[in-house]
Amino acid sequence: MCKGKQSDQLMEMAQALGAKTKVNSYTVDFEQCPHLLSVTGPVQQAGLEDPKCKLQKAKGTASLKDDEEFTDILEERRRTTDLSYALRTFNPQPYKGAPTLSTADLNKAVLESQYLCFIIKEIAMETGSSVEKVKEDASVILKEMSHNLQLGFIRLMGYTLNKVFKRLYRSIYVNMEGLNMLKQAIQESPVILIPNHRSYVDFLIISYILFTYDIPVPVIAAGIRLADVTIIGGILRRSGAFYIRRAIGSDKLYWAVLLEYVQTIVRTGYAPLEFYVEGFRSRTLKSLVPKLGMMDMVLEPYFKGEVFDITLVPISISYDRVLEESLLALELLGVPRPQESITGLFKASGVLQDDYGCMHVNFGRPLSARQLCEGKINWSEYNLIPRNLPQRPTAETQDCVNWLAHLIVRTQEEGSLISPWSLMACLLLQTPFTTLTEEGLQWHQLTEKTLWLRKLVLDFGARLNWPAHIPDSEVMSSTVALHHSIVHHKEDRIYLVQDEDPARQDPLSPEEGVMRMAVVVLMLVSYRNQALHVFVRPGILAIAIHITKSTRKDELFSFFCFLRDVFSDEFIFIPGRAAQDFEEACSLLQKCGAVHTSQQEVTVLETGLEVLSFLQKLLQPFLDSYQLMFRYLCEKEDHVFTEEQFLPDVRNLATKLILSGDLHTFEVLSSDMQKNVLSALRRLEAVTKLRASQQKEYKVNKAAVSRTGDILSGKVPLESLHTTPDARLQCQGFALMDVAGGRLALLSTVDPVIRTVSQVRGGSAQRERAQVQVTSGFGQSMEQLQLKHNVAWR
After folding, report:
1. Mean pLDDT over residues 166-188, rounded?
2. How far is CA 731 from the centre of its chain?
3. Confidence (pTM)
């Protein structure tokens, strides 16, 4: 059958489904929940309190907070037919203040908006084109971008997804309290849905859940590549997807159309808007540093006073097993991502025969932008410029958006559920490689240690997806069986799967063997990463204790901040919370009996050596990987290199060291890890990007890189972090600061009193008055710098 006929038949089916709206009516009796209830986790730390924060066994399958209840939404779907589900009555309650707009009305409102008309005239004057020509270009951009949401296609997607999800997953658990609050919030203000992004399934699951429970389905920001997939791109567009180019660059007209399109949806409350604040799907299953472009767009109508409030809903999606696990590992090793196509979809249909366990979708408590931004924005600046005119966000606004974006990602982390496999992955990666590939790890050792780690995770306050009414041994056995692509259980021992190609006649070279094994190891790493956020803060403190050999709280805090800054591309740290993160780490280690803390000291207890050893080994691959790349840059003859050279060169060096036995981590082979190192060195000003270059060229300051590596390994005395700036990193050094972030920043010596401060996070500098204190010893001031608005900022 030709593509045109296929497309026509799908259209006819969707239209038929759209016409039948009252067959087999399905309703859900919701409890009315108050909107914007108190919140926990990072939001609570931002100033909103919640008395309900104790962990206990909830009904169902997980150790969860007592104010939540998860329901398996597939249970009822399995008792009804897919067609009756798709044709059920769909009666959502939209935003009360929203005008009735069709897709055509929305697009017309965008093209006729005062803002876009102003930009069109401006571009016409700049380029010498006619206004009509530029407006026509804008119309073409909008047509490429905009969604075409239709109920018939929502039903078609519902029908298809119902079939697919019942085959892929044992259960899909949703917390009903969060869903009820979302239903209420959508009626009261414009709502922004912000899920984490680990799989292509993320794109589908939210709409599926909202359709199931009579909640308006969202319009979803998607990459333009999906639009080009035959048939599928059109179905997704009619199901609410709007498509954005990945590389917009300096295309002024495209930016203007995108901005007005997004903000018209927000201003009118046309539909909930869904986007991924991390920007991309995480190939490591670890949270990514948030991208601020879309976040700034959706919040600007509130900043300008065009809406009274905007509700942000963080959503945490947790998978027992991710569909793309092997593809993600291959991408990290430099294998290009396959082009999305309908052929690829049919080839991938084999995944329907496999088991992917359970999925948990945790709708976080709705967050009020008005409440969170209180006291952080100078509203008078927005009152001076007409709303329809473009205005560049102030540094104050950028810092607020940056803070809020990090807060959302941390809330997503704390809302995620950790599976037994994530705990087992943490332990397997600390087992000698030869044990896992040759003699095997004894099953009883793994199970005993996993139960020990389960207790530690619960002590640290994590959410754990551990079935309550099944024997622990069965839970762990079924977990290993689920992940048969990574490990296998044989004769009471656990082995890593070593994939062999029976059709291959020539033996593998040693380098090929390393890369093949790296795929399996990086798959294992990705599941460890799902639990990493629980251990990061106490883990960094454990590393600081191990490297510094100090018990003084001020010295440990200094090194904690240094590590926090170096690894701020690997882990999520909310700006302005260095001291709170340190206190949290101290508190968690004291709670589990690892240390005793006083006002001035952190003392290691003998009972805590096992915990500290586990935490050190957990983060050791990051230290080893960074040190290897520091070594590569210092030994490289040239001071200038390209990213295209850096990635394969580091991979080749790491492969040789793994083969020689001098390196014991495969994580350094990951392109994400390599790029994070470059980002960290740029932030520390040890590497600078050459702006004139077209090939992403960088210039390395070898002395600065070497110095950073020496501090990281403990070769340089801790006192070097407290010396005057002249003695640090060749007139650039580390100083503890609390400039909109309590982050470790670099002070460049420009003047004895006024210094230029690099405060890098999302490209924004904090331009507020800040007291900077460089300390020597506990509370002893060496100098104080008062940074004012007229200080030169870079």
Report:
1. 95
2. 35
3. 0.84
